[in-house]
Specification:
The structure holds 3 protein chains of 3 kinds. By secondary structure, chain A is an alpha/beta fold. Chain A contains 22 helices and 20 strands. Helices cover 39% and strands 24% of the residues of chain A. Chain C has 2 domains: 71 residues, no CATH class; 213 residues, MetI-like (MetI-like fold), CATH 1.10.3720.10. Classes of the chains: A alpha/beta, B mainly alpha, C mainly alpha. Chain C: This is Peptide/nickel transport system permease protein.
C-alpha cells in the first residue's frame, strides 16, 4: 500500500453519554496526500469533524473512546504515540483552524503573542518568532502588520480573525492543514476571500489541505476529492466532480438535489395595491445610523427577500417593523395606519397580523414549555381568537399543517430536531392567523436538506393561507428559489430592489454583482469556470 | 435524512422528580447531605414538642456531665451543660430557632431581593438606576451595627434577628436577579413572546422567572449556610438571640468559659453548625451541576454506573 | 479613565453620606452614653457637665450639623472612652487589621488559585474530589468555633501558641489560620468553577491544536481568563476582613477595627463608630479601584 501523508484507517470513536454509548464515527477511512485538497462533507451530527479531532488529539477521553483504528502520519500511528510526541506534531506538522475564530482565539492575549507562541513552543527564539509573525500577518493580508500584532482578537473583524487563525496555523509551514468549517459564519464576500487565501497558500506551500464542511459550494470551490459522511459513516468517496455529477449513494443524491439555487425562479405576483408600505424608515443608535431611510412595498401573497451581509441593517429593519425597537423616523403604512406610531392598544391588535419566525428555534422556543403551551400561548394572550375548549383541536390541526403529528403537542422542544423545532415555531406564528410573517434568517441554522423542506413548507403555507413573507437571508441561492422580489441592503441602505429574475440575471449595481459573484455554486465545474474568469480579470 | 420523519420511539423522558432523584443518588456526598438535612429539619419541627421540658430542666448533679455516659439516659449521651441540662436534647431543641432564623431570613431576603432585582432588570427608567444603589448602601452598612441597634431599640427576638439578617442578605438576590434578567431579557424566546403581544407581567412570570429560579435556589441554599453562620456569630458575640431562647451559636458561646474542663459544651453545638452548613454547601454544589444543562451529564453518567 | 474615577468617587460618596446619616441617628437610638460613663449615683450637675462637654445637650439635628462641619475640616471628633481624637484611635486599630487582611488574603489567593486550577484540570479525579471536599468544609466552618477549638488545642493543651495579643510572630499564627479557612474554601470553589469553564473553551482547543503543553494551558491560557470572577470574590472577602474580622479579633484579643467597632458600639463611643465606618469605607473604595484596575490589566476588552 502506497504511503499517504496522512491516513485514517478504520477509525471508530465512541462517546459515553447519558443514554448509553454513541458511535460518533464507525469504521471511517480516508487519506490525504501532499498538495491535495480533501473535503469531508456532512450535515450536523454526521460525525464529519470527529476524525479530525482524533488526528489532533482533541478528543477528551473520557467521555470519548477510540474503539478501533489507526491514524498514520508519514507511516507512523499517531494513536500509539505519547501525548508529548503528539504535541510536537500538533502545530508544527499538522495544524488546524476552526469555525468561529473569535471564540477560538484567546481574548486576553495579543494576536501577535498567540502567533509567536506556536513558533516558540516548537523551538523558535522569541525574537525570530516576532519577526516571522509580522511577515505572516502581511502574507495573510492583515493591514499594518506591525500594529496588528499588538492588538487583541476583539479589535478585528470576523474575516480578519480567520486570517489570523490561518497565520497562526501556517507559522511553521505544516505539512497538513485541517480547516473545520472555516467560513461558515462569514459573509459570502469574506468567505470568497478566505477560501481564495487558503487556495493560494496551499499552492505556495504544497501542503495537504483537509476541509470539513456542510456546504457543497465550498467543496466545489476547493476540493480535489470528497468524502461524504452521514450518521457517523462514510457513504461515498470520489473526486469532487464525479461525486457531484454522478452520485452513487441515495444520501448523496438527496443532498445534491436539495442544494438551493437550482429551481425555477418566480414570476412574481400581479401588480396591486400594496399591503404594507415603508417610507423613509430610519433608526439611529446614538451617532450610529443603522437604517438610513428604507422604503419598499409588500404585496399580499408575496415573498419579499431582504439580502445583505452582516451589519447591513436587515435585522434592525425587522425589529423596527415589529416594534421591538423604536424607529427614529419614517412611516410603515398598513391598513391605513402607521405601524411606527401606534398606541399600545393598537399595537397589541397589530401583533396578530404581523408575526415573526426567528433564526434559531432552539433559542426562540421557551425550553420549559410544551409544544401545546407554546402554540396556545397565542390564544392566552389574544383571548378573542379562539374559545378554550377548541385549543387542543386547533393545536393538533396546526401541527399537522406544518408536517408534525398531533401527539407531539405534549412534548418539549428539546425532544425535537432542529428542523422540527422550526416547524413548531412556524405553527406558533400561524396560531395568530397573521397576514405577514417576517422570517429573520429562518432557515440559516438548518442543514441543507432540512432547509429545503422548511422552505417547501413555507411556500405551501403561503399558497394555502395567502400569507406574505418578508424573508431576511444572507444565503443567495435560497433566496433565488423562494423569493418573488428581492431587496439588497448594505450599510443601512437599500442598494437595489427588483424582481428575483432581474436581481439574479441582470443585477444593475456593483455591490449586487459582487455578492452574486462571491456566492458559491454546488457544481465544481461552474466554480472552476468562475475561478478561471476571476484569474483572467486579475491578470 | 431521518431528521424530518417524526421521531421514532420517543426518548423515554423520566419525570423531572425521578431524574433529580437518580442524579442525587449519583452523588453520594449530596445524598448524605440531603439525608442529614432532612434529619435536622425533622428535629427542628418535631424535637421541641417532646424535648422542650427536658432541655430546660436544670439538674445540678448533672453539671458538666461528660459525654458518652449512658447512665443518665440517652439525652445525656453528649454530656450535660453548666446547669446540668442534657446537651443532646438542647441541641435538638435549639435546631428550631437556628433553622427558623436562617429559613426566615433567606426567604425574606430572596423574595424582596428578587422582586427588586426583577424591577431593576426590567425597567429602563429611574428604577434601573436607583435600585442597584440600594444594594450598594446595604452592602456597606455594617451588619453588626444594625444588630446592635435592633438589640437596643427593639427587642432581640427571633423575629427581629430575622429582619436584621434578611436586610443584610437582600443585595445578593437583588444583584443576581438583576444580572440574570439583563441576560434573559435579550433571549430569543422573550423577543418571541413580545412579538406575540405578551404583557410585561406574562413575560416576567411565564418566561423569565422560571429561567432564573434554579440559580436563585442554588444561591439560597448556599446563603442558608451563610446566614446560619452569621446568626451564630451574632449570638456568640451576645448581640443576637438572648437566653433563655437557645440557638447553636448561643450554646457555643455559653460553653466558652468551661472550655478547659468541659470542652463538649462548645464542641457539640459547633459540630452541629459545621455539619449542617457543610451539608448545605454540598447540596448547593450538587444543585449547581444538576440544574446546569451543560454540566448535568457528569451526574447522569455517574448515575448509570452506580445504578 | 478619569471620568470613570470621578463617577466611582461620586457613587461611593453618596453611599457614604447615606451611611453617615443613618449611623449618626440610629446609633443615638442605642442609648445615652452618660449612663454608661458616669456612676449611677452621679449628680444631675455632673451629668449636665458631661453632656455639655461632649456636646450631647444640643438637639440631635444641631449635633449632626456640627459633626458635618467638623468633618469638612477632617475633624472626626473625640473618643469619649479614650479622650483622644477618634481618627487616631481608628487609624491605630486599622493598621493591625490592614496587616492581618493583607497577609491572610495573600496566602489565601495563592493557595486557592494553585489548588483550584489543578483540581479543575482533572474534574472528578482524586485530587479534585479531595480539594473540593476540604474547600466545602472550609466554606462551612464557623470561625468562632474553629477559633476556640484551636485555642483549646494549641494553647491550652499543647501550649504551643499564645492565646491573645500581637507581640510576636507566634501571636499571628492562630488569627491568620482561622481567618484563612473560609475565604480559602470560597475562593477555591470559584477558581475551580471558572477554570472548568475556561479549560472547556474553544481557545484552549486551539492551544492544544498548536501543541501547547498542559501546564501552560492551565496557567497561561486558561487562568488569566478565569481570573475575572475570582478577583471579584477575592475583593469581597478582603472587604469582609477590612470591615472587621470581629469574631476573630475579639477571641484572640487582636486590637483591630473589628474589635474597636464592637467595643465602641457597646460603649456608645459614637465618634469612633463613625470614624471607623469612614476609614474602612475609604479603604474598601481604594481596594475596589485596585480590583477594577486588575480587571483592566487582565482583560484587554475592559476599558474604562
Amino acid at each position: 500500500m502506497a504511503d499517504h501523508l496522512l491516513e485514517v484507517q478504520d477509525l471508530s470513536v465512541t462517546f459515553h453519554t447519558v443514554r448509553g454509548p454513541v458511535n460518533a464515527v464507525r469504521n471511517v477511512s480516508w487519506h490525504l496526500d501532499r498538495g491535495e485538497v480533501l473535503a469531508i462533507l456532512g450535515e450536523s451530527g454526521s460525525g464529519k469533524s470527529v476524525s479530525a479531532s482524533a488526528v489532533m488529539d482533541l478528543i477528551d477521553i473520557p467521555p470519548g473512546e477510540i474503539a478501533s483504528g489507526r491514524i498514520l502520519f508519514e507511516g507512523r500511528d499517531l494513536l500509539t504515540m505519547s501525548h508529548d510526541e503528539r504535541r510536537r506534531i500538533n502545530g508544527k506538522r499538522i495544524a488546524m483552524i476552526f469555525q468561529d475564530p473569535l471564540s477560538h482565539l484567546n481574548p486576553v492575549y495579543s494576536v501577535g503573542w498567540q502567533i509567536e507562541e506556536t513558533m516558540v513552543i516548537h523551538g523558535t527564539s522569541r525574537a525570530d518568532a516576532q519577526r516571522e509573525t509580522v511577515a505572516l500577518l502581511r502574507k495573510v493580508g492583515i493591514p499594518d502588520p506591525e500594529g496588528a500584532a499588538v492588538k487583541y482578537p476583539h479589535q478585528f473583524s470576523g474575516g480578519q480573525r480567520q486570517r489570523l487563525m490561518i497565520a497562526m496555523a501556517l507559522a511553521l509551514r505544516p505539512d497538513v492543514l485541517i480547516a473545520d468549517e472555516p467560513t461558515t459564519a462569514l459573509d459570502v464576500t469574506v468567505q470568497a476571500q478566505i477560501l481564495g487565501l487558503l487556495e493560494q497558500l496551499q499552492a505556495e506551500t504544497g501542503m495537504g489541505l483537509l476541509i470539513i464542511t456542510h456546504d457543497l459550494g465550498v467543496v466545489a470551490e476547493m476540493a480535489d476529492r470528497v468524502v461524504v459522511m452521514n450518521a457517523g459513516e462514510i457513504v461515498e468517496t470520489g473526486s469532487a466532480t464525479d461525486v457531484y455529477r454522478n452520485p452513487q449513494h441515495p444520501y448523496t443524491q438527496k443532498l445534491i438535489a436539495a442544494a438551493p439555487g437550482q429551481g425555477d425562479m418566480s414570476h412574481g405576483v400581479p401588480e396591486q395595491e400594496p399591503l404594507l408600505r415603508l417610507t423613509g424608515v430610519k433608526k439611529n443608535y446614538g451617532a450610529f445610523t443603522a437604517l438610513n431611510g428604507i422604503s419598499f412595498d409588500l404585496m399580499a401573497g408575496e415573498t419579499l427577500a431582504v439580502v445583505g451581509e452582516s451589519g447591513s441593517g436587515k435585522s434592525t429593519m425587522a425589529k423596527v417593523l415589529l416594534q421591538l425597537e423604536e424607529a427614529s423616523g419614517g412611516q410603515a403604512e398598513y391598513k391605513g395606519r402607521d405601524l411606527l406610531t401606534l398606541s399600545p392598544k393598537e399595537l397589541f391588535e397589530m401583533r396578530r397580523d404581523i408575526q415573526m419566525v426567528f433564526q434559531d428555534p432552539t433559542q426562540s422556543l421557551n425550553p420549559r414549555m410544551s409544544v401545546y403551551q407554546l402554540i396556545s400561548e397565542a390564544w392566552v394572550i389574544h383571548r378573542d381568537i379562539l374559545p378554550k375548549d377548541r385549543w387542543k383541536a386547533r393545536v393538533a390541526e396546526l401541527l399537522e399543517q406544518v408536517g408534525l403529528l398531533a401527539e407531539h403537542m405534549h412534548r418539549y422542544p428539546h425532544q425535537f430536531s432542529g428542523g422540527q423545532r422550526q416547524r413548531i415555531a412556524i405553527a406558533r406564528a400561524l396560531a395568530l392567523e397573521p397576514r405577514i410573517i417576517v422570517c429573520d434568517e429562518a432557515v440559516s441554522a438548518l442543514d441543507v436538506s432540512i432547509q429545503a423542506q422548511v422552505i417547501e413548507l413555507l411556500d405551501k403555507l403561503r399558497h394555502e393561507l395567502g400569507l406574505s413573507y418578508i424573508f431576511i437571508a444572507h444565503d443567495l441561492p435560497v433566496v433565488r428559489d423562494f423569493a418573488d422580489r428581492v431587496i439588497v441592503m448594505q450599510a443601512g441602505e437599500i442598494v437595489e430592489q427588483g424582481s428575483v429574475r432581474q436581481i439574479f440575471e441582470a443585477p444593475r449595481m456593483r455591490y449586487t454583482q459582487d455578492l452574486l459573484a462571491a456566492s458559491l455554486d454546488p457544481d465544481p465545474e461552474v466554480q472552476a469556470a468562475r475561478r478561471n474568469s476571476r484569474l483572467e480579470i486579475a491578470q | 435524512m431521518t431528521d424530518e420523519s417524526p421521531p421514532i420511539a420517543p426518548i423515554a423522558e423520566k419525570s423531572r422528580l425521578a431524574s433529580f432523584w437518580s442524579m442525587l443518588r449519583a452523588d453520594k456526598f449530596a445524598l448524605t447531605a440531603a439525608i442529614f438535612l432532612v434529619i435536622v429539619i425533622a428535629s427542628a419541627f418535631i424535637g421541641p414538642i417532646f424535648l422542650e421540658y427536658d432541655a430546660g430542666r436544670q439538674n445540678l448533679r448533672g453539671r458538666n456531665a461528660p459525654p458518652f455516659d449512658m447512665e443518665r439516659g440517652w439525652q445525656f449521651f453528649l454530656g450535660g451543660d453548666q446547669l446540668g441540662r442534657p446537651l443532646l436534647a438542647r441541641i435538638i431543641v435549639a435546631a428550631r430557632n437556628t433553622m427558623m432564623v436562617a429559613a426566615g431570613s433567606v426567604a425574606a431576603a430572596m423574595i424582596i431581593g428578587a422582586t427588586l432585582g426583577l424591577i431593576a432588570g426590567n425597567s429602563r427608567g429611574r428604577a434601573a438606576q436607583i435600585i442597584p444603589r440600594i444594594a450598594d448602601v446595604i452592602m456597606s452598612f455594617p451588619s453588626l451595627l444594625l444588630a446592635v441597634i435592633v438589640l437596643y431599640t427593639l427587642e432581640p427576638s427571633v423575629g427581629n434577628i430575622i429582619i436584621v439578617l434578611a436586610i443584610t442578605r437582600i443585595p445578593i438576590y437583588l444583584r443576581t436577579t438583576r444580572a440574570e434578567i439583563l441576560e434573559v431579557r435579550e433571549r430569543m424566546f422573550v423577543q418571541a413572546a413580545k412579538v406575540m403581544g405578551a404583557s410585561q407581567s406574562r413575560i416576567v412570570f411565564r418566561h423569565m422567572l422560571p429561567v432564573i429560579l434554579p440559580t436563585l435556589l442554588t444561591i439560597a441554599t448556599l446563603d442558608f449556610a451563610f446566614v446560619m453562620l452569621a446568626e451564630s456569630s451574632l449570638s456568640f458575640l451576645g448581640i443576637g438571640i438572648q437566653p433563655p431562647e437557645i440557638t447553636w451559636g448561643l450554646m457555643v458561646s455559653q460553653g466558652r468559659p468551661y472550655l478547659t474542663n468541659a470542652w463538649w459544651l462548645s464542641f457539640w453545638p459547633g459540630l452541629a453548625i459545621i455539619l449542617t452548613t457543610l451539608s448545605l454547601n454540598l447540596l448547593s454544589n450538587w444543585m449547581r451541576t444538576a440544574l446546569d444543562p451543560q454540566q448535568r451529564w457528569r451526574l447522569e453518567i455517574g448515575g448509570k454506573k452506580n445504578g | 479613565m478619569r471620568s470613570f474615577l470621578t463617577k466611582r468617587a461620586y457613587a461611593s460618596l453618596i453611599s457614604l453620606l447615606f451611611l453617615i446619616v443613618a449611623v449618626f441617628f440610629l446609633s443615638r437610638l442605642t442609648g445615652d452614653p452618660t449612663n454608661l460613663y458616669l456612676p449611677v449615683d452621679a449628680s444631675l450637675d455632673s451629668r449636665e457637665r458631661f453632656r455639655a462637654l461632649h456636646g450631647l445637650d444640643d438637639p440631635l439635628i444641631l449635633q449632626f450639623g456640627r459633626y458635618l462641619a467638623d468633618l469638612a475640616v477632617l475633624d472626626f471628633g473625640d473618643s469619649i472612652r479614650r479622650s483622644q481624637p477618634a481618627l487616631d484611635v481608628v487609624l491605630e486599630a486599622f493598621k493591625w487589621t490592614l496587616a492581618l487582611a493583607a497577609i491572610t488574603m495573600t496566602i489565601v489567593t495563592i493557595t486557592a488559585i494553585v489548588i483550584g486550577s489543578l483540581a479543575a484540570f482533572r474534574v472528578g479525579g482524586l485530587f479534585d474530589r479531595t480539594a473540593t471536599f476540604f474547600s466545602l468544609i472550609g466554606a462551612s466552618a464557623p470561625d468562632f468555633w474553629i477559633a476556640i477549638v484551636a485555642i483549646v488545642l494549641f494553647s491550652v493543651n499543647l501550649g504551643w501558641l499564645p492565646t491573645s495579643g500581637t507581640g510576636t510572630v507566634w501571636h499571628w499564627i492562630m488569627p491568620i489560620g482561622v481567618l484563612f479557612i473560609r475565604p480559602f474554601g470560597l475562593i477555591l470553589q470559584v477558581v475551580r468553577g471558572a477554570m472548568i469553564t475556561a479549560l472547556g473553551s474553544a481557545y484552549v482547543k486551539t492551544a492544544r491544536a498548536k501543541g501547547v503543553a498542559s501546564r501552560p494551558i492551565i496557567f497561561v491560557h486558561a487562568l488569566r481568563n478565569a481570573m475575572l470572577p475570582v478577583i471579584t470574590v477575592i475583593g469581597d472577602q478582603a472587604a469582609a476582613i477590612l470591615n472587621g474580622a470581629v469574631v476573630v479579633e475579639t477571641i484572640f484579643g487582636f486590637p483591630g477595627v473589628g474589635k474597636l467597632m464592637i467595643d465602641s458600639i457597646l460603649q456608645r463611643d459614637f465618634a469612633v463608630v463613625l470614624a471607623t465606618i469612614m476609614v474602612t469605607a475609604f479603604a474598601i473604595f481604594v481596594m475596589n479601584l485596585l480590583i477594577d484596575l486588575a480587571y483592566a490589566v487582565l482583560d484587554p476588552r475592559i476599558r474604562y
